[in-house]
Amino acid sequence: LRRKSSSAHGEPAGDWLLQMPFAGLGMSNIRLAVGEMYNFASAVMALDPAPGDLVLDLGAGSCWVSDWLNRLLVDTVSLDIAHDMLKIGQRRLGPQARLTVGDFEALPFTAETFDGAICLSALHHVPHIPRALREIHRVLREDGVVVFSEPGAGHASHPQSRAEMAELGVLERDIIAAELMEECRRAGFEQVSVQPYLF
């Protein structure tokens, strides 16, 4: 993103990302916006962090998940592979933000650093999921928990997913619950469960 570029609506490029998950230029469908809020609430209820816990926000993007966790008094480290997205996250979170450019498959953290990890709709972009799961397991403390919120079967063939793959080169794939559960067990996670959403 160029710092001074702007959208057709007169909005500086990337500024709509500061509004996420609320509906805006990049997310004009209210149902999509509310769905993101529901994903967040469901994931945090499953994660069950305590105030002061240190949580790794995986695939943080513009860091809205970290922002909301911070408002719940949970400390975060925001990780994304895209430096430009984390620059937007820096604007959202301010100078105290802990941001890291990094890859799920080679996390730049020492073992047993985090109380928990959260990943909203980002794991399906990762090329080698088993390697990523082993890395996430490595950086969690002994009783640490990771929560993934992912689209399921049919996601990769959805028209929007196909367009993003063709136009942006984004990796899209289906996350099949039974397969992911087995990969989590192989990565060392002792308790693995799936909670379907209500809609």
What features would you describe in this structure?
The chain has helices at 30-47, 64-71, 83-93, 129-139, 159-168, 177-187; strands spanning 54-58, 75-80, 99-101, 114-120, 140-149. It is an alpha/beta fold. The chain has a five-stranded parallel sheet. Helix 4 (129-139) crosses helix 6. It is globular, with a radius of gyration of 17 Å. The relative contact order is 0.12. Mean pLDDT is 84; it is low at 1-11.
Spell out the key features of this protein.
5 strands, alpha/beta, about 200 residues, disordered N terminus, single chain, 5-stranded parallel β-sheet
Number of strands: 5
Overall pLDDT: 84
Helix-residue proportion: 25-40%
Net shape: globular
Strand order of the main beta sheet, please? 3-2-1-4-5
Task: Provide the low-confidence segments as ranges.
Answer: 1-11
